[in-house]
Amino acid sequence: MPTYNKLVRDKIPAVIERTGKAYTTRILDNEEYIEALRVKSQEELNEYLEAATNESALEELADLLEIIHALANYHGADIQDVERIRQEKADKRGGFMEKVFLIDVED
């Protein structure tokens, strides 16, 4: 039996159950949960970085976005709050769409 020891999406146990396989889960406490979300975000970011096609890249971005939703909720906010903050920062400092790459700044 493979051992995973990782955070999975909420409906994964039901998916496994439909295959007739036995599984073991537990509910994490808040400290374990935030750590597992951080680990999962790194895992999904690595999968995005390794994506070979636009389709797989978008799949991994969707996974990252799901994690961002969960992280926002953990921190007492929702995705609209995150989007508002993102927009404020974009209004003040810009985004990343113009592909500006800073080389150096003179002292």
UniProtKB/TrEMBL annotation:
<dbReference type="InterPro" id="IPR038735">
    <property type="entry name" value="MSMEG_1276-like_NTP-PPase_dom"/>
</dbReference>
<dbReference type="Pfam" id="PF01503">
    <property type="entry name" value="PRA-PH"/>
</dbReference>
<protein>
    <submittedName>
        <fullName>Nucleoside triphosphate pyrophosphohydrolase</fullName>
    </submittedName>
</protein>
<dbReference type="InterPro" id="IPR021130">
    <property type="entry name" value="PRib-ATP_PPHydrolase-like"/>
</dbReference>
